[in-house]
Amino acid sequence: MSLDRISITRLGPSFRWPNGQRVGVIFNVAYEGWSDGQTPGIGPMGNPLKPGHFDVNAASWGLYGPTRGIWRALEIAGRHQIPLSVMVNGVLAEKWPETVRGIHAAGHEIVAHSYGMDVIPIYLDEAGQRENIRRSTGLIADVTGEQPTGWISPRGTGSPIHAALLAEAGFQHQGDCNDDDLPYLETYASGDIVGLPLTMDINDLPSAVRYGNNARQMLEQFEDTVRACLDRETGPLFFDVTIHTHVYGRPAGAWVFDEIMRQTKALEGVWIGTRAAAAAHARAFLKTGGGR
What we know:
The protein is an alpha/beta fold. It has helices at 56-62, 64-80, 90-95, 97-105, 126-144, 162-168, 204-210, 215-232, 251-265, 275-287; strands at residues 5-10, 23-31, 85-88, 109-112, 150-151, 173-174, 184-188, 191-195, 237-244, 270-272. The protein has one domain: Alpha-Beta Barrel (TIM Barrel), CATH 3.20.20. The chain contains ten helices and ten strands. Strands 1, 2, 3, 4, 5, 6, 7, 8, 9 and 10 form a ten-stranded mixed β-sheet that branches. α5 (126-144) links the parallel β4 (109-112) and β5 (150-151). The model has no long low-confidence stretch (mean pLDDT 95).
């Protein structure tokens, strides 16, 4: 069976989010883990160690996620009654199953995020990609009793054939794309899947770690973005607000996630939902001939 894409159908200006809203906002939490012997590629110290040395500082920094960060993110979302899309690596279901059960029990969407952050599809051959999909989703399903319907690869980097493999495996949406303001439908011989771009404008890791911004600057970026979407744009849009449990899962940054949720709930003309809900809504619209 060919893994080439057959067609792509994009949304037009008549599309609206549920309740007729023009702008959609999705709150993501990146809950990330690494395979044994691997550490985050970016650590809090900035300067990498010499090759061949295990970075215990970066490893400990990453472990804040399952220890404290995920619970703080869930508490904030619960207080605002906002559903999250939580990217979860299979290794976390394997090593910290109680945290993954907690996410699922709270009613949030779990988005498969590969086995570990070091397992990036582009580095794998076709058989390796299939096995990584099977292993990652199986570990999550074993813990929650439910198969994830969405996937985002580490660093949002799949492979030229990965979306087709996800469609074949029954996934409904994938976020390894940055080429549109809206979801779109990709059709393969193996089935179809919604491409739901992972927007990076309001994301703690590039903001704080890559660019050295403080937390308040992420809040300002949100405020500027939402006002641009509501006051200057006229067509349908959506954007993500993303924190990582080992970055802004900490008190110094978690307050921004809290404040952005508070402000978003007070806005008129904005729909708040999960990636699964966004993909299902876009798919239904496209299937009725609303695409171009």
